[in-house]
Amino acid sequence: MKKPFIFSFANSKGGVGKTTSCISTGCCLAEMGYKTLMIDLDHQGNLSDDLNRGDEDYTITDLFENPKFDINSIVYTALDRETPIENLYIIPADITLAIEARSAERFRHRLSILEDGLKRLQTSFDFILIDLRPAIDLSIENALLITDLIVIPVDMDRRAIKGIEDLLQVVKEVRRNEGYVYTLVKTKVNGSHKKMLTSTNAHIKDLNYNVMQTEIRVSELYKQATEAHRPSVIYASGQRPYQDYKALTIELLNLIKEPKNGA
User: Fold this and answer.
1) Residue 117: C-alpha distances to residues 134, 176, 199, 256 (Å)
2) Which domain holds residue 9?
3) What is the pLDDT of residues 218-255, one digit of tens each?
4) Is 94 among the domain residues?
5) Structural contact between residues 16 and 153, judged by C-beta atoms closer than 8 angstroms
6) Which CATH number fits the domain that encloses residue 215?
7) Whole-model pTM over 0.90
8) 260 lies in a domain?
């Protein structure tokens, strides 16, 4: 079975559009014909809720509670309201994840619980996208150790820079001597805030971060999609959120040198 490419969406600062970026990229990959699995590792479960899988009896928590748990039983079809989203699947989270992740410290192979579980998947996926909460616990360490590319959404606010620095320091500690690949994605970009954009862009450039060219522009449609409990790129099909995230997805595929279907 082909090994899927794993993206993790992370930032130590909350409110930067991390979950939205994860869901939107996953929806675009699925639309382009890639079989995509999304994993919610945030106990708040916003990704699970937005894909209408926030009330399942069994979740990723069960894997950290029992590393031999059948992971295939927690892979659900992602939904737009009640309609299945073709090629998109999700392993949801629930509020007890943070507690069980701490409890899992007792297991001998605790740092490979997620990796070992994914090896038991009976379905082959092209991509796995993981939504990481803005904190570090065993579940997040598990994800960082198997991630091929860390995608760091950054809203255009100087305070977001500290979130990047904190996250990269954690990644270095978790992966130790292993290399890692990351890229920043500028989110909530408002062209009318020229002074703030200029200042933040200059700071990012000074720190020599890897940055995607595609920028995610601010839009009221994101709030409307959340209120409608629908993925924003599906809710706003053909409009700014869809346009920006489709462009970002194509750029990510180019970055990892994957062939593009339907691009």
Assistant:
1) 23, 23, 44, 24
2) 5-255
3) 999 999 999 998 999 999 999 999 999 999 999 999 99
4) yes
5) yes
6) 3.40.50.300
7) yes
8) no
